[in-house]
Amino acid sequence: MARVTETAPAAPRGVTGMGYARAPESRDLVRLGAEYGLYIGGEFRPAVEGGTFTTVDPATEEPLAAVADAGARDVDLAVAAARESSEARWGRLRGRDRAKYLFRIARIIQERARELAVLESLDNGKPIREARDVDVPLAAAYFFYYAGWADKLEHAGFGPSPRPLGVAGQVIPWNFPLLMAAWKLAPALAAGNTCVLKPAETTPLSALFLAGICEEAGLPPGTVNVVTGAGATGASLVAHPGVDKVAFTGSTEVGKEIRRRVAGSGTRLTLELGGKAANIVFDDAPVDQAVEGIVNGIFFNQGHVCCAGSRLLVQESVAGSVLDRLRQRLATLRLGDPLDKNTDIGAINSAAQLEKIRALADSGTAEGAERWSPPCRLPERGFWFPPTVFTGVSQSHRIAREEIFGPVLSVLTFRTPEEAVAKANNTPYGLSAGIWTEKGSRILWMAQRLEAGVVWANTYNRFDPASPFGGYQESGFGREGGRHGLEAYLDV
Length: 492
Ligand code: NAI
Ligand code: MG
Prior knowledge:
Elements: H1 3-6, E1 35-36, E2 38-40, E3 43-45, E4 52-57, E5 62-68, H2 72-88, H3 95-111, H4 113-124, H5 128-149, E6 163-164, E7 167-171, H6 177-190, E8 194-198, H7 205-216, E9 224-226, H8 231-238, E10 245-249, H9 252-262, E11 268-272, E12 278-281, H10 287-299, E13 311-315, H11 316-330, H12 351-366, E14 370-372, E15 388-391, H13 398-401, E16 408-414, H14 417-425, E17 432-436, H15 440-449, E18 454-457, E19 476-477, H16 484-487, E20 490-491
Parallel strand pairs: 1-5, 7-8, 7-10, 8-9, 10-11, 12-13, 12-17, 13-16, 15-16, 17-18
Antiparallel strand pairs: 2-3, 4-5, 6-20, 11-19, 14-15
Helix pairs in contact: 3-5, 3-7, 4-5, 5-6, 10-11
The structure holds 1,4-dihydronicotinamide adenine dinucleotide (NAI) and magnesium ion (MG).
């Protein structure tokens, strides 16, 4: 029976359905302010021109807080504060002293993990289980990892005395707001740079919380600055002449625009953009494990994942049985209140993203693919999309080519390993791929041929701070994580 129907979260919070007991995490764990300022030079302050915008809970559409909307003058102030710290404070510290601050930030993230998880779930719509078990612990892990490098940079393989670049301008998206902040800040700070971070307009709260953690850790003022706002704020930051390095994670479209803008300026650039990854299941794969991997690949974080396994390539001989098991498994997923610890699929992050997912899914039907979702009643308020599987997909369909960034899986089949490689590589992207097979030799054979920055074997969406992450082609360039992630922040 489809539990999704049974537990349809249309019932108001607090009402328990037959046979199912909700397990909500307490919203009271986090104290939300009514208004949030920019974090510049170690102080929270309103925008110079006084503008604000509202961030909402996508599961209810209720406003969470008003947040300062940074204009060009605020960006100037933030870059100036970062420059000052770079020259007078942070840039003068020894590596082993920088390390102490990073360790302290990591530990405070751990101490305040429950608050952070609730805040992230509220602002983003992701299930508390994922915020609690993935986003927050990984954010701490990246700070711990890079704290360890701060006093060992001369042994990182970039020459005897690698120098920081100066001021980093960092623009991040809404799918992993805290984790992306950690991916950007930790290596930059470890390498001795100062930062101006611009979180996404629908999810600014955890970056501001992290700014508070930096304060609590006693980080010198101006070392980390957070400017909130929409695309215009990001555009002012990446074009600012005082920024030495730009790091961007987000859409390929905006990444291309930033690349044009930064070209010829001498500003260093790394881009982590979209993806359309193939998750490839061979006939000798352990089926139950592969089905879990398919589910984790595309339904983790509502599919708002750049490296999501959004194209399932399944060997023709087992396609029927794999899809049967997949449908059975999807019928057990619980969709609804993100703060319920049993929830598997939370809310879509914004009305705009929901619109994009709907339009692309509709194109799948219009172009002749067959659409299936488990029985699933969606809540009346908020932004929701059911887990969806398209079969009969051909390589020319938009749902096989374009990044949907939602809980939508496109299924294609193949007969031989060569055909699997050809289909997997038939994309303008090149971020990630998954292989499911019992044969080690086949894993290596495939991994050598797949044009993707990350290839997972018999697992998916697994992250570790020691492992570099990044793409080819339209997925961007540069690596985050690991020793490689330091290179982007050092003058080598
Ligand atoms: P986006 O690329 O517009 O937003 C990402 C960040 O860039 C946000 O902080 C935004 O304020 C900022 N930004 C927007 N325009 C900018 C500009 N001209 N200069 C500097 N910064 C700018 O992505 P959006 O519109 O939220 O999502 C659209 C699609 O992009 C999604 O459907 C998905 O396909 C893809 N995407 C991919 C992500 C990834 O992790 N690779 C993350 C977010 C979106
Ligand atoms: Mg929000």
